[in-house]
Amino acid sequence: MLYTCPMTASQFQLRCVAEQEFVPWARMIADTYGMDRSEEELTDQRAATDLARTLAVFDEGKPVAGASVYSRLLTVPGGVLPVAGVASVGVAPTHRRRGILTSMMRAQLTDLHEQRREPIAALRPSEAGIYGRYGYGPATVGNRIRCDQRAMRFRPDTDFGEGTVRLQHADQARPLLKKIYDQVRTATVGWPDRQMAHWAVRLADYPHRRGTATSLRFAVHQERDGRATGYVLYRHSSAPDGLGGSAGVMQVVELVACSRQSYAALWRFLAGIDLVTWIDFEGAADESLPHLLVEPRAVQAAPVDRLWLRPVDVDRALAGRSYSLPLDLVLDVRDDFCPWNSGRHRLQAEGESAACEPTTAPADLRLTTADLGAAFLGGTSLTALAAAGLVEELRRGALSLASAAFRGEREPWYPGGWAFPLY
Fold first, then answer.
1. Which residues contact 171 (CB under 8 A, 6 or more apart)?
2. Are 334 and 134 a contacting pair, CB within 8 Å?
3. How many Cα neighbours within 13 Å face the side chain of 214?
4. For residues 106 and 337, is the Cβ–Cβ distance under 8 A?
5. Closest Cα partner for 109 from 288, 369, 307?
6. What is the spatial distance between Cα 71 and Cα 48, in angstroms, rounded to a whole number?
7. Contact at 8 Å (CB) between 242 and 233?
8. Residue 9 burial by CB count (10 A; 0-12/13-18/19+): exposed, middle or buried?
9. Cβ contacts of residue 387 below 8 Å, gap of 6+?
């Protein structure tokens, strides 16, 4: 596919990446993020990449931009939906502000729509301000957490269960991690599935990526009958203490627990490790840890947007999740980037079933696909968006009903690393 850059007379080629082009493409993408790629990283990334869904823009035969789609399953309210995980998006600094990113985003979404692929697309942006213009909205919030280990005393009524936590070698722990993760992710909104290639990237321990930190540690929680019911991945590091010395820092990469007892036991394990002052972690917006402590202020948190989501096809997306209240609602949707979504859609929901289809009936709410993307997982509320002037109520009472129906029992969150589909 050839297109003319809107700001110049130059022509670039937009097409899928061929096998022999993958390495220069991947190195170009890494360079846009100021990163290098080792041979081992390239091998792992290639195993996780579907070249048939990996775009590049070529200028005189050289890749100057790219974006990839990784087909995943995402837990949504009431079930699991296929999702187009968008990642490895970058434009070389020599070719920015020429409409290239917009062309790639349009090509991706048009393909998803015309081929009736995944009904939603998701990404974790490195810069939050970029993707709203393409119809994405911030669907999950994570908390960047720093715990003062010295003040982490657990409430006397905390139930730690009867299990034990043991350190294990990576090869021994790996099959247990997958089993635990799969059990938790199907019940936790915002969590994607992980195939073997995704696990390889998630658990990769490239020395040049560690900085001053140690290699990855694997701690697994097991019940008395031997069942594995939780794990934590972490590293040791250090940071200046402000007095000319250094303080021990534990970097928690991932903590997954099947029960509140295993969750508490894993945190007790981390709080008891010697020579640690701070524990750094990224968790959910409604993380339970502070409620287990005598001094909740030992846990300091700063919210940050994480997974951004956009409906590719509004009707299929909205019919693919359940709602906490019965609904019969007409949404007037505006989608300037994907015009096939623009118009009125009737959303009906009862119990676990939902249906959505175009309609000519009068609208109850007016909003954009970015607003729907933000609210889709039950995190960002429609009432909050309305308070910002983004959602308009056209029938009295429709806003509060819709907002309550879209919300879930707990805040959705995404547990992966910075690149959504790889982890």
1. none
2. no
3. 14
4. yes
5. 369
6. 10
7. no
8. exposed
9. none
| The predicted structure's pLDDT at residue 3 | 42
The tokens 């709602």 sit on which residue?
323
- Complete edge-to-edge strand list for the sheet that includes strand 392-393: 353-358, 343-350, 327-334, 365-368, 392-393
What's the pTM?
0.92
Q: H or E element: which one contains 224?
A: none
Instruction: Enumerate residues 6+ apart whose C-beta is below 8 A from 389.
Output: none
Phi, psi of 116 (to 5 degrees): 50, 55
Identify residue 216 by its one-letter amino acid code.
L
φ/ψ (deg, to 5) at 407: -70, 155
For residue 417, the model assigns a pLDDT of: 56
Give 352's contacts (C-beta < 8 A, 6+ positions apart). Answer: 78, 322
Query: Which mean pLDDT values do the consecutive 10-residue runs of the chain (423 residues) have?
Result: 45 93 96 92 93 95 95 96 95 93 96 97 90 96 95 98 96 96 96 92 88 94 97 94 85 97 98 96 95 97 94 98 97 97 98 96 98 97 97 98 95 72 49
CA distance 256 to 316: 31
Structure-block tokens of residue 405: 């129906």
